[in-house]
Amino acid sequence: MNGQIHFTLNGEKVTSDRHANERLLDVLREDFKLTGVKCGCKEGECGACSVLLNGVLANSCMVAMGSIEGSEVVTIEGYSKTKRFQALSDAYAQTSAVQCGFCIPGMVLACEALLAKNPNPTDAEIRKGISGNLCRCTGYNAIVEAVKIAAREGKGLW
Amino acid sequence: MESISKSIPKRDHFPKISGSAKYVDDLSFEGMLHGKIVRSTVACADIKEILIPDLPEGYFVIDKNDIPGINSVHIVDDDTPVFSDGTVNYVGEPILMVAGKDLKVVNRLMKLIKVVYDEKEPVLDMMKSETIFYQYGYTKGDWETAFREADKIIEEDFQTGYQEHTYMEVQGMIGFYENGKSIVRGSMQCPYYVHTAVKRAMGLESDKVQVIQEEMGGAFGGKEDYPSILGCQVAVAAYKTGKPVKVVFDRSEDIICSPKRHPAKMHYRAAIKNGKITGIDADIVYNCGAYTTLSPVVLQRGLICATGVYNFKNLRVRGKGVKTNTVPNGAFRGFGGPQTFFAIEMFMDHLAKEIGMDSLSLKESMVVKQGDDSATSGKYHFHIPFPEMIEKLDQMSDFRKKREAFRNQTGRYRSGIGLSLVYHGCGFTGSGERDLIKGVVKIVKNTDDTVELLTAGTDMGQGLKTAFAKIASDTLEIPLERIIVQNPDTDRVPNSGPTAASRSLMVVGKLLQRAAEKLKRDWKPGEYQEFVEKYVHPDFMIPWDLSKFQGDPYPDYSWSANAVEVKVDTLTATTEIVGAWGVYDVGTPIDMAIIKGQMQGGFLQAIGYGSMELLDVNDKGVIRNNSFSDYIIPTSMDVPHLETEVVENTYDNGPFGGKGAGELPAVGGAPAYVEAMENALGVNLHHTPFSQEDTMKVLEAFKK
Ligand code: FES
Ligand code: FES
Prior knowledge:
The structure holds 2 protein chains of 2 kinds.
Chain A: E1 5-9, E2 12-16, H1 24-31, E3 50-53, E4 56-59, E5 72-74, H2 76-79, H3 83-94, H4 104-117, H5 123-129, H6 141-153
Parallel strand pairs in A: 1-5
Antiparallel strand pairs in A: 1-2, 3-4, 3-5
Chain B: H1 13-17, E1 33-39, E2 45-51, E3 60-62, E4 87-88, E5 94-100, H2 103-112, E6 114-119, E7 132-140, H3 143-148, E8 152-160, E9 172-178, E10 181-186, H4 191-202, E11 209-213, H5 226-241, E12 245-248, H6 251-257, E13 264-273, E14 276-289, H7 295-304, E15 315-323, H8 337-355, H9 359-366, H10 386-397, H11 399-405, E16 413-425, H12 432-437, E17 440-445, E18 451-454, H13 464-476, E19 483-484, H14 504-521, E20 529-534, E21 557-569, E22 574-585, H15 592-611, E23 642-646, H16 669-681, E24 687-688, H17 692-703
Parallel strand pairs in B: 1-12, 8-24, 10-11, 14-15, 18-19, 22-23
Antiparallel strand pairs in B: 1-5, 2-4, 2-6, 3-5, 7-15, 8-13, 9-10, 9-12, 13-14, 16-21, 17-18, 17-20, 21-22
The complex binds FE2/S2 (inorganic) cluster (2 copies).
The site of one FE2/S2 (inorganic) cluster (FES) has 12 residues of chain A, from loops.
InterPro entries (chain B): Ald_Oxase/Xan_DH_a/b, Ald_Oxase/Xan_DH_a/b_sf, Ald_Oxase/xanthine_DH-like, AldOxase/xan_DH_MoCoBD1, AldOxase/xan_DH_MoCoBD2, AldOxase/xan_DH_Mopterin-bd_sf
Protein name (chain B): CO/xanthine dehydrogenase, Mo-binding subunit
Pfam families (chain B): Ald_Xan_dh_C, MoCoBD_1, MoCoBD_2
């Protein structure tokens, strides 16, 4: 079932001739060299491979290429060029929320998805928003704190 | 707060958060092959035959016959094979590697390879093992008299389970062989461990082996010994194929074959006379798995910690590490300490009930102070801030009031609060720093007056690069931007020792500080200069004698007090963790936010160890829950109120007063959690993890 799949990747129109049942994660990492998209499990459990798919947080390891025709995919590489990213990055730096960093690109996109829906989340809402993204290093507090700082200091961005 | 403690953005913040940092799986090289390892599917067998299909052009099988040096991975001892030598001793043991350009083809070939086994009865139960890898023991005072003259002797058994590291980045390495030189790069804590191992397996001289650390996505001890094994395998594969060979595990493979925290069974006895504990006798067994790897040192630390933070006058501690046909266990944050600390903390709680005291009062009355003898007849040379720490913990958690209020509860929801007092000995155990590691650092000043710090220290997320840079910048009084810290490459850095044992900051950081002081005194603008600094053993230490198991195993200790509060629904057996509080003494924090992050992350891992992280090994020795959907680790929702504080207790022999930090928070979480559960359920509990099923069992027993 090979053919061309068309989608938008970090704002650019792209095509892929991968088979429809291939994982978006592998295509992003191998064909587009977007290695900021991490693989922690390949079974939809860790969130390291998170991307924004039409603005919604998705585990790219669970997304089949056949399902993304015409979709808009944003990875950390694209998102890191935005002002919103800058606000989140500054906040993460303030709380030293980046430890090993492996969960972080996915985590940042989870924070974006959350703030886009809810610009002033409570602690509990933040914890719920990032609950699909495992982090083994931080204990999550510094990340929760960073989201609050970003929401406060990035006023108007979300 | 000391000025150095003020937090700065971490050095690796931007590359990591923007996704540009390269981890081993993100690297690709010209002509690189992908390797996958065929592993034993049985726990104990001789291999009768291996049937290998015809391999397409450019595809290879690499096994024991391809090893140019010795088929053994040097760790502490040398019993771990690089590839099976004809027998297999656990499910997951590496037999051979298939390598080739296309991973899909490699995976297909893997399925066509048939290993024919002559199966033997495996030993899976550590109590039935007849192979003792290591055993140690020590006594203090006159334990025999204490037990002979006791009014009452109390005996209990404790048990702790496996814990899997689940670093988010799985194990991975790439091997190269170029012009007679083996080069290995990847995710590892200890480049020089890998260097030593590869030298031996490849039969090469030191200068013909180069090991380079890439960005590391977490480790927690899990990448202390294992990269030596994988490093040898990729080195041999590159040698045979003449191409770079990359092996990166799947999550399930990683869970099946990478080391874990040693499960332990611990029998404790206490002699009680006139309402006082007069003696302790502990008999401890650690399950090493199929090979020895780091077990001797893990067991030593476990035994040193066996009587916790209390000053018992008379004691006997014995322990052994035994072989089973299960995955070899290794280093995990806390390194043998969390098991025995769990036992002694629970035991103290139970003994308090026997004696008719509340648990915290008993603990406070016996806690060690500066000047006291340690369990191994060493000395606590420095201030031990438990009184301040307990006060602070009580303020944060309201422990004393709650403990009182949670007595004799009825009704559907029951609350409980538990507390633990623990330490982590800073640095390598015993005389390791002096006799084995002999750490060396080098500091180089370039002609542009930038300064590079050359150590074998690796940053696995704990913030080592940032902490080292701060130490150098503050000592030299030059801006941080002029300090260079890169990932270690053994061709460039001296062997400052492994990044393990909470030693990096205290030991290596101190060496860097001393080198920086020399450079500062001798600073010549615009000139190239270099300074080498070697480890000097602290002269106040009482010499460690392993044969007697006596002396100072560590120069100093980091201390912590932990409390956890739970609310149990007795109808559904579900438990909500209402709060978790930790107070830590890690000397002067070199960076407050980094220390907080370490404490919070470690504490959450420890609560996971106490409550939910349950590895399920079946009666064939197979780990059944080899995925994140079945091996459950804490998410952001599990402990929403986790608070940590530090007390500042300067350690004069550490850089700017700092001492070991990374492992400390992993020690006290489990006993605090399980004590909270027993407080809520009104029973004595003896094992960790204490899961929802366990709660259900206790509740069912009440009904009968
Ligand atoms: S890699 Fe996709 S969820 Fe873990
Ligand atoms: S920072 Fe390491 S897993 Fe989150």
